[in-house]
Design brief:
By secondary structure, the protein is an alpha+beta fold. It has 6 helices and 11 strands.
Length: 259
């Protein structure tokens, strides 16, 4: 027998209106859609007695704080090795650039400087034009190295957080001070669903690409909160943590009585 998402009392068949697709809880007087009653049963199983490892629920002065770590050892290990390899190669050219800039701005390199002496084909110091070209040429390679370093750090230390109160909601994703914050009106939340990520869908255009993606990996899912704006989160979480976070958000934003 289904339970009321608000007070956890049993909803009897006599209180279900199949034609309208709604049910009424006699204990608290709440009215719920039948789809929400079915969803609440799976949410209760996902929440369980204890949160997944690393996840936490904390009551604050303003509401509730949810935390889920985004750690993924396999991605973190790969991105760390790739970042070290990539930046080691780029650093060689950066040292050449640093030597050229030092030569043009200050003067000849001292013998103790750990920088290569930038020489042209004729043995002359690298020209100003060549130095500027090298700096512009290296910029995208440095940018790639910085992005991979951020991805590696997020895979090891990143986390997804949500602060919920009666009127306001805020979700954050990131690592350290590098965080993406999104706010929404908690009183206008209409639904919280699990959907396939639009980012993956947009990168899988073309029949061959879609076929290869469907054969080699499962769709990347994310949590979508529909309120005064649409909030997407949790794509980097493991399936267990993402399911738990979605269930907690539904319990707190859709089922909890407003004060």
């Amino acid at each position: 027998m289904p339970l009321c998402p608000t007070c956890r009392s049993e909803v009897t068949p006599d209180d279900v209106n199949i034609a309208e697709g709604v049910a009424v809880c006699r204990s608290c007087g709440g009215m719920h859609r039948l789809s929400r009653l079915i969803e609440a049963a799976s949410d209760a199983a996902a929440i369980g007695d204890e949160p997944p490892p690393g996840c936490r629920v904390t009551e604050t002065a303003h509401g509730v704080h949810l935390l889920c770590p985004a750690r993924c050892v396999s991605i973190g290990a790969f991105m760390t090795l790739f970042t070290l390899f990539w930046n080691a190669i780029v650093s060689v050219f950066l040292l050449v650039l640093a030597g050229a800039v030092y030569t043009h701005v200050i003067g000849p390199l001292p013998s103790w400087a750990p920088l290569p002496d930038p020489k042209g084909k004729d043995g002359e110091p690298m020209s100003v034009g060549a130095t500027i070209f090298l700096a512009v040429f290296l910029f995208p390679f440095v940018l790639v190295g910085a992005v991979t370093a951020i991805i590696a750090a997020y895979s090891w230390f990143g986390r997804v957080e949500a602060d919920l109160s009666d009127a306001h909601g805020e979700v954050r994703s990131g690592v350290g001070r590098l965080r993406w914050t999104r706010r929404f009106d908690a009183t206008r939340v209409r639904s919280i669903q699990m959907r396939e990520s639009k980012i993956q869908s947009s990168t899988s255009m073309g029949g061959a690409s879609r076929h290869r993606n469907s054969m080699n990996s499962r769709p990347s899912m994310e949590i979508v909160i529909e309120a005064d704006r649409e909030i997407h989160l949790g794509r980097s979480l493991t399936e267990t943590r993402r399911t738990w976070l979605a269930a907690m958000l539904r319990a707190l934003l859709l089922d909890a009585p407003r004060r």
